[in-house]
Every structure is written in structure tokens, then in C-alpha cells.
Amino acid sequence: MVVLLVVPIYMVIQYSFFDNVIINDNPVFVGFQNFQELLTNESFWVAVKNTLIFVGGSVIAHMIIGITFAMVLNTKYIGPKLQAMFRVIFSLPWMFTAAVIAVLWKMLLNPNGFINFLLVELNLSSTNLEWLASRDLALFSVTMINIWAGYPLFMISILAGLQGIQSQLYESSAIDGANHIKNFFYITLPQLKPILISLILLDFVWTIQQFALIWMTTGGGPIDATEILSTFIYKQGFSEYQYAMASTSAVILLVICTIVAIFYVRHQRGQE
After folding, report:
1. Where is the ABC transmembrane type-1 domain positioned along the sequence (predicted)?
2. Which pLDDT belongs to residue 271?
3. What is the DSSP letter of 112?
């Protein structure tokens, strides 16, 4: 833990206050100058904006789709065998690695791929769309891919929560004349609240650090249409060799994730 976690974090924080680090034997202490330069960097704010859209869209969609599929699988109208089959099918995206997901969706979203074929056949589009090569569609496309890849975690966790809700609560509400909508908002959601808060906080941290999926599909492009903080940090360090700026960006990301982690720990303690 010390060698692989504590020491690297300390070094990155240290690098953020210096210039000419790693590739120079005489680093220069510049204080908060790197942070000032970064916060006036237009590319950094583009990455921040794209990250907010990517993370916000992913987390919200994960929650909505996860709740929907979990409730479908928890309904009494589907038999045990059919439920088992659907659980396997709905969980498949979570079993794939980022590399498999990237290759799969690059083929599906290819201009001559299945998605465009389907849209043209259904008369929903007159031309083959450049899903991953268009500045207008690329961010939307990678967000949809990430949503598809991540919703099973919510679905499985919420399904476990639904099965832990006492049936007497619904029976009592039925006696009082409550319908399914009222049951959802006054029984299901309040009972799922602890699980949902934990999932949202964890998903936020995982999604804001997403790198492999973006890098293997668009590489942050076209131009900077899908540039998020993780790809921005990588390019600063390993493409432009600006290790001080990369460290500064990483420190800012670390602070954001630490704040969310603090909220998560406090929430867990509150549950106990």
C-alpha cells in the first residue's frame, strides 16, 4: 500500500508544485503557478465540461435503467426460469472488459455497421452517421456506450434491495388503497435510498476516472469532442511530456474524488 499508493500520490502532489519535473534533474519550485496556468487553460475547461456531461449522463441513466430492469426482474408476473435467463442477459455488459466493449461498439457504430443499417432500414436516417468521428455525435456515443456497459451494477444491487423489502409493507398499502405509483414513491424508493446513494457516489468516482473506454474508441477526439479529464491528464503527461501540468490536473481530480469518498464514508457510517 505504501509503495504502490502512498508514495506515488505524494510524488504527484509534489510534482504539481514544481516545473521541469521527471525529465529534468533540476526541477524548479513554482508554488501554485501550475494551478493558475491550468485553470486558465481552455483545453482543461473543455475536458471539464465533457466530463460533467459524460459523468452526469452516465450516472443518471445507470440509475434509471437499473431501477427499471430490477423492477422488471422482481415482478411476480415473470416465472423463475425466465427471470434467471433475463438476469444473465441483462448482466452480460458488466462481464465484458473495456477492450471487448470498445471493439464491439466500434464495429456496431461504424458508418457501415449494424446501427446505421438499422436506422436506414427503419427510415430513421437517410445517411450513414459517423457516430464516433463526428464532433456532434462522438460524446453522445461514448456516453451511451458507458451507460450500456455500467447499468448492470445498479440493476443487480437494486434487485437485491428490492428482494429485501418486506412484503407486508405493500400489503398494508394495498389495504389503504395505494396504487403502484404511490407504492413506488412512498415505499420502494425510500427503502432503496441507502443503496441508491451508495451506488451514485461509487459510480461517480468510477465514471469520472474512466479512461480505457474513451481512449480505445475515440482517443479523446475528434479534435477535443470527447476529451475528458482522464484523457487530458494522459495526453499532458505522455504526449506533450508536461508532467507538472499532468500532475496538477491529477491532483485536482484526486481532490474531487476524495470529497465524494468522504461523503460515501459518512453515508456508510450513518447507515450503521
Report:
1. 48-264
2. 66
3. T
